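User: My collaborator sent over this chain with a note saying "see what the structure looks like." That's all I know about it. Can you take a look?
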Amino acid sequence: MFDMRRLALWLVPLFVGGVVHAATPAAIPQGDALVRTVNELDKKVFDAYNSCDLKTFGDFFSADIEFYHDNGGLMLGREPVVEATRRNICHKVRRELVGTLEVYPIKDYGAIETGTHRFCQIGGKTCQGEGKFLHIWRYQNGQWQLTRVVSYDHHSIENGGK
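Assistant: Without extra context I'll predict from the sequence alone. Here is the result:
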């Protein structure tokens, strides 16, 4: 005779295990996969920055972002960061990465991204400014967001760089 209780004892753990597994977000990439992931995130953030797509740009920042800028000071929260970008960057400046991106894992959190970038006037042929940055990326619930940004060592580039 077929015993439903016995079948349930086998099926329930399989079903629950499958649901838990399906609900668990993917692990943080490691090694070269992490570098590729952060490179792609950097490209997406700054494509939004350069095109003044403030909705997309803002989505990359956690609600409690801490943004430290050597010239602008400290900004706390997503809205002030997005507003400062709208006011100071949109349709005025574009950012270029100069091949210096480095990525380091943070165990059970995400990644550190560092590098140097240039800032160029929209429509200009040369870049006039350069600075360094450190980004802290958090991977949570299947989503990457910036939680800390340090933007520093901003200076002009003699002869326009490039």
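A starting point for your reply to your collaborator: Residues 36 and 101 are 11 Å apart (CA to CA).
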